[in-house]
Design a protein that fits this description.
It is built from six helices and no strands. The chain has 154 residues and is mainly alpha-helical. It is elongated.
């Protein structure tokens, strides 16, 4: 009876081809040209690249290197942009509260508008009172974001 081989789901355990090894060697050469690697490091890594059998062994060799042509300023700018994006992201509780407030405001404005269209007299603009919880929610959001920004800056 033939022995069944279970399919691997992890791509890094797959065997690397000569073209893959050559591509990693080219990336290492670019890193050497940019001054990211010393000649000794380059030599060691290229030797390991051509001896590698799997993708995991190849990827370890370039894990600490940025893509070719990327400067340190671009890498730090991308990291700073990611930090700013995380800082701006609202916590889930505030997102839920803003959604509820928006839905309540939309329903109240719709009802008030329909009543104002169907009644001949002037109608008291009761939806204006929704600005009070909206302002409180806005102040809370600003406070939470300031606290989070201070926390991330540390």
């Amino acid at each position: 009876m033939a022995k069944e081989v279970a399919p691997r789901t992890d791509a890094e355990t797959l065997r690397a081809a000569d073209a893959d090894r050559h591509k990693i060697a080219d990336q290492l050469k670019s890193a050497l040209d940019e001054g990211r690697l010393t000649l000794h490091e380059y030599d060691d890594r290229v030797r390991q690249a051509y001896a590698a059998r799997t993708y995991a062994e190849l990827l370890i060799l370039v894990a600490d290197l940025p893509r070719p042509g990327v400067s340190a300023a671009e890498v730090s700018a991308r990291k700073a942009a990611e930090v700013r994006r995380v800082e701006r992201r609202l916590p889930m509780a505030l997102l839920i509260l803003w959604t509820i407030w928006g839905a309540v405001a939309a329903v109240n404005l719709t009802v008030w508008f329909l009543v104002a269209l169907t009644v001949e007299d002037d109608i008291y603009p009761w939806p204006i009172w929704l600005l009070v919880p909206g302002a409180a929610l806005g102040a809370t959001t600003v406070g939470v974001q300031m606290i989070r920004r201070r926390h991330y800056r540390r």
